[in-house]
Amino acid sequence: MNALRIWKDILAQGQYLFRAGLVTALILLASVLYPDGRSGAGQRLRRLLKRPWRIAFAFYCVFILTSTVLGRSFVNPTEHVLTHFGFTHQGAFNDQLVENILFFIPLTFFYLNAFPVRHPFRNALQLSVGMTLLVEMCQLLGRLGEFQLADMAQNIVGGLLGWALWRLTRILFPSGRSSRENGL
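^ that's the sequence the OP posted. Answer follows.
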């Protein structure tokens, strides 16, 4: 029964992917069409398309916000603040634990590929904490979804796993950049 619910959740994410794609496309279109006085729209579009990791990062940020905040109904956000910490919940496997961890892995992975940083671990941690706080505060203040401390911890773990994945890809596929630029 749990597997069926997980597949329904995955299919339901399709609507959030569509919304995120639409909003990201509108943001990118506005950034291309906005006159900056230095170059034409065609040049800005070519520059933007040379940075696919930035597009992926922007898309994923919008996806996170649409699926965690905008796609929720009004509830009492403080009802389950301290639940869902373990591997089981009410006698069944806590699939929300895995979902929350997997949800934030691409966020830091895309970010670290999109923007060269001097301290990738610290930046990944700051991004994970910041995005988690943004989502949980929006859920708490907007009464959309449930504010849960377990979600915060699991999202941060997912963000740090995204950093680990990024670092592993840098070790396995070096790009000729210096070790400082690779964050190693």
